[in-house]
UniProtKB/TrEMBL annotation:
Species name: Floricoccus penangensis
Pfam families associated with the record: E1-E2_ATPase (PF00122), Hydrolase (PF00702)
Subcellular location field: Cell membrane; Membrane
Annotated protein name in UniProt: Cd(2+)-exporting ATPase
One annotated GO molecular function: ATP hydrolysis activity
């Protein structure tokens, strides 16, 4: 039964009890109705509490159970009814607040295109389901419609709004042949596009799948509440027991527990975290669950991959250098490399393929291909075996320093290399400075597979004091594993492709930019920054810290008010029914304060 349905049922019970008491003037029947309802609720809560304890967590439901039972025992059944209303109403309010807080996620999912307009052979349009669109299909996107799949532009020009994907504030002018990402919004004129990916492989669908995964992932908020549950429960019982012992009146015990509202612990922190997740998504940052926000807020050591993370990742081919004893010329070497690399998502591979297309170099057929993480690619072409990647992987040793190279061998013989270059992200230096100085991250460390001279140049330019070069993926993982307990939680920022091991092992794995979305979904990174913007990492940490602060404050505000009310109730000046009403006020204040986490500063 849903919480709102429970609330309706409790209201029916309350109205029935009021009718019996004040219309039929039958106090016993009213008491019976409330007693049965209260006993059933207390029993169901007790069963849930046992399950919670068995899972290794501590709950505060025992306070609510005791309050219901004690008020029924002393005959204050109206107070018991109000407590029941408070508990069920609190759960319904939690649902409302969670839905309010997660509206950004829902908004993104609601934009998912369902149909596409396909151009038939006779030139007419036919509506088909997006999942039925095939690669090569010609589609028409009407004004202000969402582009249904990743495609290339067939029309001469188009004005496309990509703000929900890239964070670009202004629409982008695109020319014929340009790739358009699904989820983008067309401008004021219809355009024709050609599908280049299936719906399930397209950018927007990958983001939506990730959002749906986030929404279905258990919230995992209990850790924060658990820290306060046991001491709060002990304090409540001590005050109630002391009041009963001194006054010799069992009513005092019930009156104290009635105002010992557990809702600030049960509801306030989770609502703050859901609000924080919504605020992050509004800033194009997707976080899988609330526990990640808590870790992100407390990060002490941040690791960064270099290529595509601290650098722009738009590598360009600078030189093609065949070996002196090779039978390949530059074009042949580029054609071979591009043919093998065209199936890889690595940015070096993309740069080589882009160069081949720019030079209008033809591509050959590759029979077999296998990627060796951290080393390169092994491929079979026309009965010959080729290795592309590191120098030693391609059966050579190169003493050239300060450059990024892809080396190529044929049947174990080195045949040449391709030299590439990259540029630092313009905001990288400022981000590193903010992490160290403003956010006081204890250690900022760069991990890279490039040689020491390249790593040293980048580290010096960005002001990074610690870096490690020539690392394989498992060696990056070893660096994260070696972090001492005092320097945790750890953060790993990478491209979500070659850094899968490190992203998965770090306390918080972060992928930045559109290229990493599908990989992140499969490789279990915790945070996806949709904008290709490194400064969003700083934003994510700031929002997480603000969210955690709000969650703690909302809990403490509720606890403080509850303790004051318990002390007053211990003197006997607050009747049980008044205490039950005051409990609702405490809950409302805590929950409304928790919703502060929604607001950008």
């Amino acid at each position: 039964m849903k919480n709102w349905q429970k609330l309706v049922l409790v209201f029916i019970i309350a109205i029935s009890a009021l009718f019996c008491r004040f219309v039929l003037n039958n106090d016993n029947l009213a008491r019976l109705i409330v007693t049965v309802a209260g006993s059933l609720l207390a029993l169901s809560m007790f069963i849930e509490m046992i399950k919670t304890l068995r899972s290794g967590s501590y709950g505060v439901d025992i306070l609510a159970i005791t309050a219901i039972i004690s008020t029924l025992v002393i005959g204050e059944y109206w107070a018991s009814l109000i407590i029941i209303l408070m508990l069920v109403g609190g759960e319904s309010l939690e649902d409302f607040a969670a839905n309010r807080a997660s509206k950004e996620l829902d908004l993104l999912i609601s934009k998912t295109p369902v149909e596409a307009h396909i151009e038939t052979k006779d030139g007419s349009l036919k509506d088909i389901k997006v999942i039925d669109v095939q690669i090569g299909d010609k589609l028409v996107v009407r004004p202000l419609e969402v582009v249904p799949v990743d495609a290339k532009l067939v029309s001469q020009t188009a004005t496309i709004d990509q703000s929900s994907l890239t964070g670009e504030s202004k629409p982008v002018e695109m020319a014929e042949g340009t790739e358009i990402l699904s989820g983008s919004i067309n401008g004021d004129f219809p355009i024709t596009i050609e599908a280049i990916r299936l719906a399930k492989d397209s950018k927007f669908q990958q983001i939506v799948s990730l959002v749906e995964e986030i929404k279905s992932t258990p919230a995992q908020f209990v850790r924060l509440a658990d820290r306060y549950a046991v001491p709060f429960t002990i304090i409540a019982y001590l005050i109630a027991g002391t009041a009963w012992f001194i006054s010799k009146d069992a009513h005092r015990f019930a009156e104290v527990l009635v105002v010992a509202s557990p809702c600030p612990l049960i509801l306030a922190a989770p609502i703050a975290f859901v609000a924080g997740m919504s605020r992050l998504s509004k800033n194009n940052i997707l976080v899988k669950n609330g526990s990640i926000i808590e870790k992100l807020a407390d990060v002490k050591t941040a690791f960064f991959d270099k290529t595509g993370t601290l650098t722009q990742g738009n590598m360009r081919v600078e030189e093609i250098i065949p070996a002196s004893d090779s039978n390949y010329n530059q074009n042949e070497l580029l054609s071979l490399a591009a043919s093998i690399e065209q199936s890889s998502n690595h940015i070096l591979a993309k740069a080589i393929v882009t160069k081949a297309k720019e030079e209008k170099i033809s591509f050959g057929q590759v029979q077999e291909i296998k990627e060796v993480p951290g080393q390169g690619i092994v491929a079979q072409v026309n009965g010959k075996s080729y290795n592309l990647g590191r120098d030693t992987f391609a059966h050579t040793e190169d003493n050239q320093i300060g450059t990024t190279n892809v080396y190529i061998s044929e049947d174990g013989k080195y045949i040449g290399k391709i030299t590439l270059s990259d540029q630092l992200r313009p905001d990288a230096k400022e981000v590193i400075s903010e992490l160290e100085n403003d956010l006081q991250i204890k250690n900022v460390i760069m991990l890279t597979g490039d040689d020491k001279s390249v790593a040293s140049n980048v580290a010096n330019e960005l002001g990074i004091k610690q870096y490690y070069s020539n690392l394989l993926p498992e060696e990056k993982l070893d660096k994260i594993k070696s972090v001492p307990k005092d320097d945790k939680p750890t953060l790993m920022v990478g491209d979500g492709i070659n850094d899968a091991l490190a992203l998965a092992y770090a306390d918080v794995g972060v992928s930045i930019g559109s290229e990493g979305v599908s990989t992140v979904a499969s490789e279990s990174a915790d945070v996806v920054i949709l904008k290709n913007d490194l400064s969003s990492l700083v934003t994510s940490i700031k929002i997480s810290r603000d969210t955690l602060k709000t969650a703690r404050e909302s809990v403490w505000i509720g606890i403080f008010i509850c303790v004051i009310l318990m002390l007053i109730a211990s003197t006997g000046v607050i009747p049980a029914i008044v205490g039950a009403l005051l409990q609702e006020v405490v809950d409302t204040v805590s929950i409304l304060y928790a919703l502060k986490a929604l607001r950008d500063k």
